[in-house]
Fold each of these.
Amino acid sequence: MKKTNLDNLLSKEWIITNGIGGYTSSTITGANTRRYHGVLVVSMNPPTERKVMVAKVEERIIFNNREFQLSTNQYPGKVYPEGYRFIKEFSRVPMPTTVFEVQGAGLQKTVFMVQDSNTTVIEYTNTSNIGYQLWLNPLYAGRDYHGLLHERERNDFYMVQNSRYQVIYPYHGSEPVYFRHTAGTFVEGRTWNENLEYHVDRERGHDFREDVYSTGYMSCMMSPGAKVFLMFSTDENVMDASPEHLKADELNRLESLVPEEVSSPFLADLLVAGDQFIVQRRSTGGYSIIAGYHWFTDWGRDSMIALRGLCIATGKREVAASVIRTFLDYLQEGIIPNRFPDYKDDLPEYITIDATLWMFVAVYEYDLKFDDPAFLEEIYPKLAEIIDWHMRGTKNNIHMLENGLLAGGKDGIPLTWMDARINEYSFTARAGCAVEVNALWYNALKIMQYISERLRKKENTVITELAEKLKRQFGLSFWNADCYLNDLVTEDNEADPSIRPNQVYALSLPFPILSREQEKQVLENIAEFLVTPYGLRTLDTYHYKFKPSYSGDVWSRDAAYHQGTAWPFLLPEYFIAYLKVHDHSEEAKRQVEAQLLALKDHFYKEECIHGISEVFDGLNPLEGKGCIQQAWSVANLILLIMKERLNV
């Protein structure tokens, strides 16, 4: 079905983050299309425990005895108001800015957040020669960002007004929201805005209707060139700050994210987008990495993969070291957490076999970039502990076989990145010896050798001999007669010949485990069956389990998640392998640059403006799906472009 102009506008989203897990996000129309949208989404226990405090702000202008509503909402069976018709322009850089024009009257709306604070500021400017009355109505939610609010559940929204700002308590005992406006008069008028519909939630098989609350509206006479700021925060100290100064500080911060030597506008914009994922974690006092927005927290696997592009390649030495320390602080039996929970009373999860091994790759690339033997010395005991636990066996039946391969998994528990599961059913359990896990295991052993030599430790002949043994066994176990790598080998030596992208890591990781001729053959297999313009398919289209579309309810989407769905974060790994096999020739670089144009176009024009989506359909991929802004999707593009010095 062809999209209408409204459909097209509603499909384009934006997000701004605050460095502690909070954010502000909506569509370019201002209509919220999912429960995760909001003017102020706070993180109460950084970077987790997120709450939608302020859902949106309704705008209208009044002049010549006429009222024009600039907002857009979806209700059952209708769209009202239709303010999107007055949008003249939207720009994302440096801050999300919307320009409305109504019969010669112009209004510019700019949104930004205060870094390291749960604070959103909206600036309204009269850009025309016509004076008018501006009417602004904040709508509050005050609920968990995974949930929805309904009138029957809440009758609070207690408000205190002082001479400078308002304090709104969404419910008894809740954290307050502080609201300040720099001009105009506030008129109290309490009412529910009922039955807002979020069509993305409906498409994803979730509840999709919500009621939000208004305590009243702000009215201001706007002469030509006049400005008014709205400030929403859970930090009372910010209320006395100048919004003009806060904006200037944020503009300076955004500019500082791009080194002077970066000449590519695309790379510059990727660096700013990538910074959105770097957050402070209160529990450790250090840094961590959000896996994706809107709903992910900081995941071990995603953090270790994304760390290389977001922090190491970009020269953020202290941040990179802090992220590694954050996860090592939670080391248990040689395993770092796969996921930190949403809520402080819950415990971290350790359902992973590869996250810890990815950390070795991150440590290796960290040292190549920063030449930091002191940091290696600091973490060396824990690295040695990790290797030891993996050799003798640890959580979730992770253990080394006599032939050196690393196996893991039991009772359908998915330990690899292909971890979609509903209740006790796993769609891609992959118990046994996974191909990418053993490529990572080999690299972890080689990196441990490298670190030991760097620190002049006594040679560990067990690790040296094991690495050599594993390299020999890898080819024997995983090489398929059709010249690619089997995806999995069971402990009984039964091979799963499914053509999946996991084999790419045997080529893209730092330490080669195949011959150059084998690498070329694997690359050809991936190119023939798995490459799309936006990512690598998770399963070839001829496989009987292939799912062409990532859509529908939770079950349908999880069933397709790793059974054909294309993932952008894998594409740079393929290109790194491609350039390696082609000796980084100029012609190979030109080929890669040309093939990156589709993702570049997506970054600027589709779904999340200045973002890279989590996934695309496996067959006929056209639009981004899943998370609108995914850490490793952005990070691996940065890594590829900076590492290979591509001109994109």
Note: The radius of gyration is 26 Å.
Amino acid sequence: MKILQLKLRSFKPFGNLMLPEGDAELPDGLVLIRGPNSTGKSSLFEAILWGLWGAEAVDLTNDELINFRSTSCQVILTFQVAGTQYKIDRSYDPANGMAVVLFANREGSWKRIADKSKSVSTKLDEILSLELKQALSTLLVRQGEVAVIANATPSVLRDLLVKVYDIDLLHQMASHLESLEKDIESRVKSLESDYTRPAQIEKQIEECQDRINRFESGLTTKRKEIRSTEKMLQDLPDAEVLRKIHQAKDNIESLKRELEVKSEGLEADLSQAGVVEASAKILNARLDALEKGRKRIESERRGIKGRVQVLDQEIGLIIGTNRDLDDKIQTLTNAGVDEVIECPTCGKPLTAADRDRLVADYNATINDGEAKKGALEGEKRQLMATSDDYDDQLNRMSKSEDAVKRVSQGQKKIDQTREKVTYAEQELSTLLKENNIRSLDAILKKLNVENLLELQKKVIRLEEALKALRNETSDTEENIQREKDTISVLQSKKLDMERIGLEIAELEKMNEHTKYVRRKLVSGFVTDYVFQKRLLGIIRGATNPYVRSFTNGQYTAIDLEPTPAKGRSGPGLILRIWDERDQAWKKTSQLSFGDRTAISLGLRMGISRTMSSIRPLKDSPIVTPRVRSVLLDEPLGGLDRARREAVVRNLVNDQSFEQILLITHTDVQGWEGIPVIDVSKTGTSSNATLEM
């Protein structure tokens, strides 16, 4: 498989990305993907995996893949397998869910070949000849995976190969057989715990029959009590009728009390209205009289208010004149001995005698004004008192008018309440006739109760007692039927015991056979055959060229040595490396971190190289290699400059893969001429460009 084009919309940090731009395609061979941390390099791999297989391939939910500025995401991936081009268009939004379409390029145009998640997945399995689990192990080397291999214990390394080559089936078979043994043993114990001797069952049947006899005896007594209680209730109204009668009587009494209260209120309103009865003629005459009186008083009050306004004007004029004369007197009397005295009005020079005469005239005018003002204020007070009296009269008239209106409404309400009383009494009479009750007092006296409430309680007690007796009778009948059903079950159970004995014998025989298969046939098959006779030689052959080139010839070969189980750890594999310089086999623990990383990367590349055509078991089907690409996520972090250069140089010349995409943020020497995808970030958005 070779990736040709990748188009992203709102996928993780990428807003809109077309890689490469236009109609160009990603090249064959090694392509470096570089850029600072947190710019989105690994997100490109996630986009490829999600585009092909969905969220299951990236260990993320679909919602986590949507750019935080958007509400949906889309990946369009164009790739080539065995000379045929394919395009997969996968999009997701929370409202509508997942949409995916797979196209194939037929004679220059794209033809839809699958458009549902399940059908697309099935079609991809056919195209790649591998399922998702194996395809991921072939296609992707995750970040940190090389370091895991470099530091793996024997059991961890063996488990890794079991997982990668998907040969855990044999372990699952052994586990299944062991679970089957436990299930058989559990089933036998369960059957044995359920087994009962027939004599015990017969005894249980006899006990059931005894209980049936006792229940039937009790039924006779309860049925007699039911008939007696039913006869007593036949002569009495039922509790619901008594409740309605009691409610009707309470309603009548309540309406009568309401009528009494309203009548008292009407008498009070008649007194305040100044009338003796509530006839419409009298009330209307009273309202006319009050209206005429109100208009007369309001007319007179308006005249008083007009006169008061005139008096206020005259009083104000006197006050203003006197204030002006006081000012003039002050001007005349405050003049100095040598000052020229002038008339305050015309400015004419005055003698002292003229001044004194003028001052005397002014004082006389002021005194006359004060006397007149006193008379006017007295008249105003009398008028205000008369106005207040008119206000009181109007207030009393208003209250009388309100009372007259209340009398009219009150009389209507009293009439309505009387009608309600009459209707309620008629309802009570009808209710008594319908239930053939001639006299409530006679019934109360007959049953020796004081009132309806006690009678109602007594009837309720009888009805509840009758209901309880009927329920007890029904329960007893159910108990009898239950005992009969139990007898039937016990009789069937007796027949089942013989069948259970035969089943226990068969299960014990099957358990012995299962243990033999697990212990003798399955145990050790993976170690003895799969690893030692098939996989290890294939892995060594694929890995050694990478080890030699990645270490510049210092290390030339690897070996994987099976180890038996030890303690709690299962069987494992020890990775040994031939050191050409020291002419010795060494364990990974004897190497530097950089050497371990380079060798582990070589082992991982060898594993990916073998995945397309490996047959772990003799009868495994031969498939045509379809996934001849690899995605390497940050595998160079533990390597020095020389090791990185050796790795890149070897990958450039590696013909085992159609395409190798390598993510790195470290400086790589000797990358000149290698296609590079530069990933950068501006603000919150990332971008990627291909440089040839």
Note: The chain has four domains: 1-129+629-692, 148-167+524-623, 198-236+450-520, 241-436.
